[in-house]
Amino acid sequence: MTAQLTTRRLGATGPSVSSPGLGCMGLSGAYGQTDDDQSVRLIHSYLDAGGNFLDTGDFYGSGHNEALIGRALGGRSREEVVLSVKFGALRGPGGASVGFDARPAAMQNFLTYSLQRLGVDHVDVYRPARLDPDVPIEDTIGAIAEMVEKGYVRHIGLSEVGAETIRRAAAVAPISDLQIEYSLLTRTIEDEILPACRELGIGITAYSVLSRGLIGGSGAREGALPMMPRFQEGNLEHNEALVARVREIAAEKGATVAQLAIAWVAAQGEDVLPVIGARRPEQIESMIASNAVSLDAGDLARLDDLVPRDAVRGDRYPTPLMADLDSER
Asked: What domain count does the chain have?
């Protein structure tokens, strides 16, 4: 199967980006050990194939991920890439979460270090990774808007927030997109969040499209995966059986289950951008090949029947982390 990357726009006001986008979190140890040289080759493979959307966070590997991307971008044109950066999550020396900070002054500090590590003079999309319960979203978005005016940021994004917060943020400044989990197994955004974004002209950058490897993964359970409820005993067997139901459709399409799942997210609308994590350069070609998978209304209906919306077992994060998600309230 061969295909090319396609182009989508992040909402009514955001940049044009390649689809699928490349999520870089897994290149900094989130799901097991990685090799920096191989990771650089992976990023180069994506860019050389015509990709331009790289998603990262300043807390991925406590700065390692941004430095890695900065290394990979060395010698390339700044206009060749759209950098999406999340901020605000606080990490201790051992990597444990120690809180969240979206105060305007803290945001400026985080942005300064991100620009340094990435080796760039601006970030294309800048977004708080979560809602800070101690800081009004209006204050955070207003402060990022000031960075837009000064040229350090091009567009403002959101991540894992609910419809009410989205509306409050959009009343302050244009929002390009909301980054949020969306997949065959995770569809709660369809109730209120997705309609609100469409009403306001805000795009969706969908992450965990493969449900952290539950869909089409290698079967390895490294890094943070054993702590995830959907991978724990009882839930895992049920969820793997759910995924197995779609193998026949994937085979009919000449695709892998993972490619089918990426195509499903892409088929939810031109305003939805699948963001796919990869750890090996050869995965880039397979990721791009998902664009060759065509799903019509009948295919989508069959998938809905095989994997009902609420059939998955287990929350998508451990209980303490679920409590931090404004999108789940």
From this structure: 1
Please return the burial class of 18, using the count of CB atoms within 10 Å of its CB with bins 0-12, 13-18 and 19+. buried
End-to-end CA distance of the chain: 41
- Mean pLDDT over 39-66 rounds to 97
Q: How confident is the model at residue 31, as a pLDDT?
A: 81
Cα–Cα distance between 125 and 113 in angstroms, integer?
15
Segment holding 244, helix H or strand E: helix 235-244
The mean pLDDT of 176-191, rounded to a whole number, is 98
Question: Measured in whole angstroms, how far is the alpha carbon of residue 269 from the centre of its chain?
Answer: 16
Q: Give catalytic residues, as residue numbers.
A: 60
Domain of residue 212, CATH code: 3.20.20.100
Dist. CA 284–CA 268, nearest whole Å: 22
Q: Cα angle at 177 between 48 and 281, to 5 degrees? A: 25
Q: Is residue 226 part of a domain?
A: yes
Query: What torsion do the CA atoms of 306, 307, 309, 315 make, to the nearest 10 degrees?
Result: 160
Please indicate, yes or no, if residue 26 is contained in any of the structural domains. yes
Beta strands (DSSP E) in 160-271 are 177-181, 203-207
What is the H or E stretch that residue 100 is in? Answer: strand 97-100
pLDDT single digits (tens) 107-134 = 999 999 999 999 999 999 999 999 999 9
The answer to whether residue 1 is domain-embedded is no
Residue 143 lies in a domain: yes
Residue span of the structural domain in which 285 resides: 6-328
Token couple for 140: 């955070």
Confidence of residue 220 (pLDDT cuts 50, 70, 90): low
